[in-house]
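Hello forum,

I keep getting stuck at the same step: I have a sequence, I want structure tokens, and every attempt I make locally crashes halfway through. Rather than fight my setup again tonight, could one of you with a working pipeline run this one for me? It's a single chain of 125 residues.
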Amino acid sequence: MLRFFDFLFLRIYKFYDSFNEKGAQSSAAGAVGFFMAANILTALMLLSSIFNVNVFISNKLYILVIAIFFQVIFHIRYVSQDTKNLPLIKEKWGKLTENQKNYQRYYALAYMIASAMGLIILTIL
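Reply #2:
Ran it on my machine without issues. Output:
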């Protein structure tokens, strides 16, 4: 599962890096952390709606804790841990065939859209 998030990180990193942003690695890690937190919050809101139970999602402190938790986890994984993560991910990416790369690109795009839309839709409801 982390392989997908590694490639998602790489795609977002390349996007930020194309604008010559200094903190591209940190920004990409933050974006991956946001999408993971959005998925957890969406699942909790969905469970809360389906079973008509408060799954502690109404408290802003819990939402903040979940968001910060994933920001810290992915920052440690991709930025703070050691600087060899990015070259290793690039190396794994380079070993994929063009079809596998295209699949990963479309899958990452669909994941980002679904994560953001799911959170927005359930927040409105």
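The two ends are 30 Å apart (CA to CA). If your local run keeps crashing, start a new thread with the error log.
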